[in-house]
Amino acid sequence: MSQSTVNAKAPQRLREAIDHAHAALASAGVPSPRHDAEELAAFVVGCPRPRLHMVGDLSAGQRTVFSELISRRVNRVPLQYLTGSAPFRYLEIAVGPGVFVPRPETEAVAGWCVDELLASGISAPFVVDLCTGSAAIALSIAHEVKGAVVHAVEREPAAAEWARRNATGTRVIVHEDDAAHALPELDGAVDLVVANPPYLPDAQRELVDPEVRDHDPAAALWGGPDGLDGPRMIEAAARRLLKPGGLVAVEHADHHGPQVAALFESAVESAAGAWEQVVVRQDLAGRDRFVTACRAR
Ligand SMILES: C[S@@+](CC[C@H](N)C(=O)[O-])C[C@H]1O[C@@H](n2cnc3c(N)ncnc32)[C@H](O)[C@@H]1O
Question: Is 88-295 assigned to CATH 3.40.50.2300?
Answer without folding.
Answer: no
